[in-house]
Design a protein that fits this description.
With 218 residues, the chain is α+β, with helices and mostly antiparallel strands. It is built from five helices and 14 strands. The protein is globular, with a radius of gyration of 17 Å.
Length: 218
């Protein structure tokens, strides 16, 4: 008999493949994101690596989705993105028949966002800007694309296809990107100080099917 957890993961996978994104309301996330923000987003520290691990490899929901979509994937992006209410962005622009990268987004309290359902399956013009790709709004007015507005309040985890168009209307998001091996040359390695404690943290963040793209300096 298929477990309820497996069935839920399958539904999430199918939703991401069809719609381009899935969001889960979790009352614990918003405040943790706000605390991380007050600490200055210390991604490249022991505390930062613990935060990343807690919300990816230690989160069964995230791991099961990643492993249901990918044979193997690599953590390639750790970044914070601010509000740009008049702009729609995407992380990638390529023609593909399968998901090559998923973005795990943790949203701050009182955030509001727009996700363009189905846009990940469309060929859209995208303009490179500030590390993201901007999609001109006129290209989003298609029958195959639906504008979905989401009120995050204090509790949102979002997993999306890296080609999906989205707008940060209010608040901000901390985003972790996971990509297949073919995508590794697109993302620069995440550089860390050559410290033993950081190496131990990174070693604890890998599994048989999920790796990391860190590089120790020095």
């Amino acid at each position: 008999m298929t477990s309820s957890s497996t069935l839920i993961t399958q539904v999430v996978k199918e939703t991401i493949e069809k719609d381009g994104f899935y969001y889960h309301l979790d009352p614990t996330i918003g405040n943790q994101v706000n605390v991380f923000a007050r600490e200055g987003y210390p991604f490249l520290t022991e505390k930062g690596l613990d935060f990343i691990k807690r919300h990816t490899l230690d989160d069964k929901r995230v791991c099961e989705v990643l492993e249901s979509v990918f044979v193997w994937s690599d953590l390639d992006l750790c970044q914070k993105y601010d509000r740009h209410p008049g702009c729609t962005f995407s992380f990638a622009n390529y023609t593909k028949t399968r998901v090559w990268a998923l973005m795990v987004q943790l949203w701050s309290t009182s955030s509001r966002a727009v996700f363009y359902k189905g846009s990940h399956l469309q060929s859209l013009e995208k303009i490179d800007t500030n590390g993201l790709l901007e999609i001109p709004h006129e290209y989003l007015h298609r029958d195959a694309i639906e504008c979905i507005k989401v009120e995050m309040k204090n509790r949102a985890l979002v997993i999306l296809d890296d080609q999906l168009g989205f707008t940060i209307v209010q608040g901000f998001t901390i985003t972790f990107g996971f990509a297949v091996e073919e995508e590794l040359n697109i993302y620069a390695k995440i550089r860390l100080p050559n410290l033993l404690d950081l190496k131990k943290r990174v070693a604890s963040m890998t599994s048989k099917r999920i790796g990391t793209n860190f590089k120790f300096l020095g």
